[in-house]
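# step 3/5: fold
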Amino acid sequence: MKAPQLTPYLAFKGNCREAMQFYQQCLGGTLDIQPFSDTPAAEYVPADAQDGVLHSRLETESILLLASDAGSEPIREGNNVTLSLNCSSEQEIEAYYATLTAGGTVTMPLGDTFWSAKFAMFTDRFGINWMLNYDKEATA
């Protein structure tokens, strides 16, 4: 039996499409976006929100990220979720750090830690908190 997978689901204030396209540019993968207008939910959404995102899915070999526009639901950006991305190399963590921090606010710059990892924390330009981690190989 396969273990359950925890998948983050993000809510945005009308800019879900832009955010998910940005994440696809940074992380790669396949992005599927379903607007309200293409679903039965369209009858419950105001005309100016028809192009909003009912559901989106970004998938790579090892990442699954789901998101939607919140519609009329109140959300608070910046503290609604933190995404933790474990990287497989120094090159990978440096590349993700360089792209994901663009336009954002770094709270802990990418650097070596006491737990033998390279680590960073930041809030991206869409108000989403991120942690990047790369566990370095032990030296003998």
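# step 4/5: annotate
The CA atoms of residues 36 and 109 lie 38 Å apart.
# step 5/5: archive (pending)
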